[in-house]
Amino acid sequence: MPAPPDLARLTVRFWGVRGSTPTPQAGWLGVGGNTSCVEVRAADGTRVVLDAGTGARGLGYALAAEAAGGPGKTHVLLSHFHWDHLQGLPFFAPLYIPGQTVRFYAATGADRLRGLLRAQMSPPYFPVPFPELAAAIETVEVEPGVPFQVGSITVRPFPLFHPQGCHGYRVEAGGAAVVYATDYEHGSPSHDEGLREVARGADVLISDAQYTADEYALREGWGHTTWRHAAALAADAGVRRLFLFHHDPAHDDAALARICEQARERFPATDLATEGLVVRV
């Protein structure tokens, strides 16, 4: 059973769970239509944000309300730079609040990271240039396999097998561990073994599960895995709970419910990552 809120060592909230593109249409919104954005908070209030897909818009409003115009710092861990993981960034409210600091982390040089963030808000794509944002912007390069601290939270980045590169994160505090493994394709022995080891014993594994086996047969090389592989990974790594994530935009709520039931036959402690879901460990 999850720990009660006052005893939770880590609290996970899903703000966006879709892959590839948002799905704002009837029949998809039970699971959620926003793209990847996950908040992980430690018991002392320290938090990290995993990716800034369209789900970051709602999170940003919540953070702005919490700050109430005062100073604050938000830590955003970016897995990679494909659109579905950045689409919410121009609408992320803390960026527009004086006194706020937003620190971005990624497995690339700090200057290059700043340039990539600036480019996706440059004319003619967005009317507010990145250098004119009111918040202080900081960029940090992380090194795969080398842990770093964000307050009371320890973060370990690790590489994933995905076109143009991607990195997941193991987030730990108070003896609890959450592993975020979005956008990866199985089949690379070194990456598969590395992911299995970094996920070993985690309380929560958030795993890409975009395809069925039949779909994957037509999409090999696209950089995503199947719910079947995610369930096998969870079992092999001995995780406590698996959350299927990065749902394909073609999968409506009914299709995802069927996928979850099938995955539970292989790994019973499986749930769908759904927008608004809060998990305490």
Automatic annotation (TrEMBL):
Alphabetized Pfam families for the sequence: Lactamase_B_2
Name recorded for this polypeptide: MBL fold metallo-hydrolase
Superkingdom per UniProt: Bacteria
Native organism: Rubrivirga litoralis
Residues covered by the Metallo-beta-lactamase domain: 34-233
InterPro entries given in the database record: Metallo-B-lactamas, RibonucZ/Hydroxyglut_hydro
